[in-house]
Design a protein that fits this description.
The protein is α/β, with parallel strands linked by helices. It is 42% helix and 13% strand. The protein has a single domain, classed as Undecaprenyl pyrophosphate synthetase (3-Layer(aba) Sandwich), CATH 3.40.1180. It starts with a helix and ends in a 19-residue tail after the last helix. 36% of the residues are buried. The chain binds 3-methylbut-3-enyl trihydrogen diphosphate (2 copies) and magnesium ion (MG).
Amino acid sequence: MSLEQLLAWIPAGHPDAALARQINFDRLPAHVAVIMDGNGRWAAQRHLPRVEGHRAGIAAVRDTVETGARLGLGVLTLYAFSIENWKRPPSEISTLMMLLKRYLRSELKTLLSNNIRLRVIGRIGELAADVQDELRDAVERTAGSDGMLFNIALNYGGRAEIVDAARRAIESGIRADDLDEERFAQFLYTAGQPDPDLLVRTSGEMRVSNYLLWQIAYAEIYVTETLWPDFRRSHMLEAILAYQKRERRYGGITPARAVIGAK
Ligand code: IPE
Ligand code: IPE
Ligand code: MG
């Protein structure tokens, strides 16, 4: 999409309009990956149970997805549940799954009206059957969209993904000599997608928590103190603007300006 699409959604005179105008639409990240963190802390600050933070996080998801689509991002990947998150109390996990199902139902119309195609990455077969059904339905219904690709990382682990890719490579019968980085990437969950140019993490933690380990090799990392339930369009625009000020070198000695946002 474009500046016009973004401005059409921002009330006149709102400070986000000024942010939107600063964005260079020729140098957008092709893929933005987000670690949505800080829901528990958001709730704790309000003396609420952790699940209230997850509930409040839905509004941030909604805003971020629509901002991404209106900006014209190629791919947006949100980390919703890691393989390690099974260590949490069962009641918290079941609330997260319930919220996911509710989100998929309530947001389907918005996804379709923004021409968004949904995909799920992770060990989906290990999720409860009702969650899998809901996901399959939403993926199928948005399959005809050709705008932004929205990956939800669910029961996702970066190392697990690499192991799964290695298994698939072996099963495909590929010869060891034929395997290189490009061929291997075709066995990942994100086959055919550009690698993230920008990795955003909310709530200040300086770690990658087993997220897209292969794909973030040269991603620019942006960490904000904002807790996920408070994250909105303005924060997303700030992240893109910070990204556009970065000098990417890919191991060379001169800034690879032309590569920023390359699709
Ligand atoms: C992120 O918020 C949501 C998930 C990991 C599912 P957290 O629940 O990790 O919140 P904090 O990090 O405890 O504040
Ligand atoms: C990463 O957040 C996982 C998701 C956002 C789904 P965590 O809160 O689980 O990460 P750690 O435990 O702080 O590394
Ligand atoms: Mg956390």
